[in-house]
Design the sequence.
């Protein structure tokens, strides 16, 4: 059974940083692409970034240059380093693999 567990969300001021983690089980991480998707309050899902093994990560224009994907194959975990955070980055961040989703982790950017 595929399971995805996100962590690392919190409340930070604009300009601050957070690192989200997605711990995967039930499959070997490095064989498959993994994505982060977010949902702002009252809005739909928005793709953030995808990590494709063997290739470079790809990012949405809204986060390019501020967010960075990385992974630890030994821990079967991917990370999303988020810098220079803005109020528009507020939302629930989900880890996605195929049809599997984590429970989400809440990110709040506010002064």
Sequence:
């Amino acid at each position: 059974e595929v399971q995805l567990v996100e962590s690392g969300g919190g409340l930070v001021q604009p300009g601050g940083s957070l690192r989200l983690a997605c711990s995967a089980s039930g499959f070997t991480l490095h064989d498959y692409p993994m994505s982060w998707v977010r949902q702002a309050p009252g809005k739909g899902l928005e793709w953030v970034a995808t990590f494709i093994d063997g290739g470079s990560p790809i990012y949405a224009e809204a986060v390019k240059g501020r967010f960075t994907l990385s992974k630890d194959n030994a821990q079967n975990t991917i990370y999303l380093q988020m810098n220079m955070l803005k109020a528009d980055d507020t939302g629930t961040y989900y880890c996605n693999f195929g049809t599997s989703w984590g429970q989400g982790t809440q990110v709040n950017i506010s002064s």
